[in-house]
């Protein structure tokens, strides 16, 4: 694939920066990169089995690297599965110049500035997912300036977070291999296993869960994820049928936007209900909490617009008294889950490991919060090799 590069060097002379005496730095350069991570094997969840999507073969990434006049750098990212990668890059490229000359510490103000720069296309969805890459980079930079991991910068309640694995439990894996994957994950130090369900054949779903429960015993935490494939009636029937397995939660039993349906299901079942990963704004999650529709809230920082809006959700979730299980992006979420005072889990996906020079540690069923400043990540040579398009603004950003 041909690498396309776009460079914009604006004239900063006379630019009103809006900086007061408290300002300590300013953004001098931004680099955007679009990369595609190939998966080793195609994977399928219930959306494939019901004909709504094709198997997942790759993940698209938007990376944002920010440099300041003091020489500090920050790295942030967002992602898209299947479609959307070029759109994220295109939107980010339009709004990136608005960061030049700004104080990078003003994360909340800059998030608002960027969201209003593209407000005509909305304040959720693709627009805010593009902003997430910038916002994460600014928080990473803030942690590096302070010499603190992001969790410690925000204020941690713990140094490790309970971790569960999803990548071994997809429906594209036969039952025998599924059991082997689950055993191997537990041996590697995983504390819980999530299994995909939601097939048209509901008996097959129950058989898969029964096989894993029998193989692992009652001491291993199990969760299931229907990926929004049940209607309200089937969700209730399957929820009741799954009660006997002692699950930690049933994830996305209904359409992600059916807050009322999730509320009815949460009231009817003993098993906790989890959802939120497909929502792309604070307001959508707030509706789940208002209706008591969720026992485990599952926000995704890149999808809701970054760390700045995610922190708002943490406060709302804490007040509501629910548990937390952020979706995907464990490299970001291990830090954020560590700051949550109530029960929290982080989702382990080894898919993204080739992107980074660093690795997260599992220990006794938990993921260890990195001690490196910021997010503690740097892009690998493989990530650079998978890059298909870049755009630079202002001063050069060191590689």
Beta-strand content estimate: 15-25%
What's the average pLDDT?
93
Specify the overall morphology: globular
The secondary-structure element order is: EEHEEHHHHEHEHEHEHEHEHHEHEEEHE
Rounded radius of gyration (Å): 21 Å
Largest sheet: 10 strands, mixed
Helix and strand content put the structural class at: alpha/beta
Task: Explain this structure.
The structure is a single chain. The protein has helices at 46-49, 85-95, 107-117, 126-146, 150-154, 175-187, 202-216, 232-242, 259-268, 282-290, 301-304, 307-320, 330-338, 381-385, and strands at 4-8, 27-43, 56-68, 73-81, 160-165, 192-196, 221-225, 250-251, 273-275, 296-297, 323-324, 345-348, 362-363, 366-368, 387-394. The relative contact order is 0.17. The strands form 2 sheets. Strands 5, 6, 7, 8, 9, 10, 11, 12, 13 and 14 form a 10-stranded mixed sheet that branches. Strands 1-15-2-3-4 form a 5-stranded mixed sheet. By secondary structure, it is α/β, with parallel strands linked by helices. Helix 3 packs antiparallel against helix 4 (126-146), helix 8 packs parallel to helix 9 (259-268) and helix 10 (282-290) packs parallel to helix 12 (307-320). A hairpin with a 4-residue loop joins strand 3 (56-68) and strand 4 (73-81). It is built from 14 helices and 15 strands.
């Amino acid at each position: 694939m041909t690498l396309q590069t776009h460079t914009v060097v604006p004239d900063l002379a006379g630019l009103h920066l809006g900086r007061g005496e408290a300002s300590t730095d300013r953004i001098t350069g931004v680099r955007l990169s679009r990369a595609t991570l190939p998966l080793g094997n195609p994977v399928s969840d219930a959306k494939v089995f019901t004909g709504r999507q094709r198997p997942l073969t790759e993940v698209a990434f938007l990376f944002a690297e920010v440099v300041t006049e003091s020489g500090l750098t920050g790295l942030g990212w967002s992602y898209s599965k299947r479609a959307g990668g070029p759109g994220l890059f295109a939107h980010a490229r339009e709004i990136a110049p608005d960061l030049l000359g700004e104080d990078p510490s003003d994360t909340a103000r800059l998030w608002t500035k960027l969201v209003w720069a593209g407000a005509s296309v909305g304040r959720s969805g693709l627009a805010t997912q593009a902003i997430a890459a910038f916002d994460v980079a600014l928080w990473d930079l803030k942690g590096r300036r302070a010499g603190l991991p992001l969790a410690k910068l925000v204020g941690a309640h713990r140094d490790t977070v309970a971790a569960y694995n999803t990548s071994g439990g997809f429906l594209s894996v036969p039952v025998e291999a599924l059991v082997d994957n689950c055993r191997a994950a537990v041996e590697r130090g995983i504390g819980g296993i999530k299994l995909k369900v939601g097939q048209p054949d509901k008996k097959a779903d129950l058989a898969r869960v029964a096989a894993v429960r029998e193989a692992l015993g009652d001491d291993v935490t199990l969760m299931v994820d229907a990926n929004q494939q049940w209607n309200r009636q089937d969700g209730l029937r399957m929820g009741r049928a799954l009660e006997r397995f002692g699950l930690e939660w049933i994830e996305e039993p209904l359409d992600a936007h059916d807050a009322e349906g999730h509320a009815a299901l949460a009231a009817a079942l003993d098993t906790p209900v989890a959802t939120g990963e497909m929502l792309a704004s604070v307001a959508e999650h707030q509706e789940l909490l208002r209706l008591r529709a969720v026992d485990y809230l599952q926000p995704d920082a890149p999808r809701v617009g970054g760390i700045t809006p995610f922190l708002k959700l943490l406060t709302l979730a804490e007040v509501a008294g629910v548990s937390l299980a952020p979706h995907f992006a464990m490299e970001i979420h291990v830090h954020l889950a560590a700051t949550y005072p109530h029960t929290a889990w982080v989702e382990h996906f080894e898919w993204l490991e080739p992107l980074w020079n660093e690795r997260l540690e599992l220990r006794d069923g938990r993921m260890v919060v990195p001690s490196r400043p910021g997010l503690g990540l740097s892009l690998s040579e493989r990530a650079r090799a998978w890059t298909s398009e870049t755009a630079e603004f202002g001063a050069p950003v060191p590689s």
